[in-house]
Amino acid sequence: MATKEFKKAARIILVGAPGVGKGTQAERLMKRYPQLSAVSSGDLLRESVRNKTPLGLEAETFIRAGNLVPDEMILKLILNELKSKRWVSSQSSVTDAVPAEPSKNPTASFILDGFPRTAAQASRLDSLIPINLVVSLITPVNIILSRIASRWIHAPSGRVYNTDFNAPKVPGKDDLTGEPLTQRADDDEETWKLRLRKFDETSQPLLEHYDQKGVLWTVKGNSSDEISPKLFQELESRFA
What we know:
It is a single chain. The chain is an alpha/beta fold. The chain is built from eight helices and seven strands. Strands 2-3-1-4-7 form a five-stranded parallel β-sheet, with helices on both faces. Strands 5-6 form a two-stranded antiparallel ribbon. A hairpin with a 4-residue loop joins strand 5 and strand 6. The longest helix is centred in the C-terminal third of the chain and has 25 residues, at 189-213.
């Protein structure tokens, strides 16, 4: 895949139902645009807990009690990451009255993953750093459900196969070890219908929030291969 360069910084959020291929699109974007990095709130949290940073120790008390880590703490993790990369001023704080002035350098481009999930979280993020593109990825529910029904995994390694487009060389066997493939217990249709319904309920206010900000762009397709070219075209028209 040919790489392209941005001329200005892209600060992107991908929003899509489970099974829509968000991870695939993020990987393809970072491959095509080398200036783009992933900032994952989940990874930052795990790393912070593992390294026993002051924030990590504080977060661990919530995790051990079975509670969600407060939004404010996640925002601090994200801001610390942006500051460490010099993408915002080192003086920025989550208590600032105005958002941090982000770097305009194209190398300060990122895809934020895992946060925000609600409109309230998005408002807090707005007060921290302005996001300039939110992509709503849409694939019909029946396509997502058939994709999940075709998904098989090699549990020990986490390798994922799909009998429709990424089939194992020998049906039902892992390519590398020859061990049997299984389907995840939570990959049944009813569980997925519930997950998709919940996603719709929480994502609607989030998308409306970004629509009002004028940064929402929606792309539809039955497969990742159908969506990617449209996504590339949009990013190049905005940032390249």
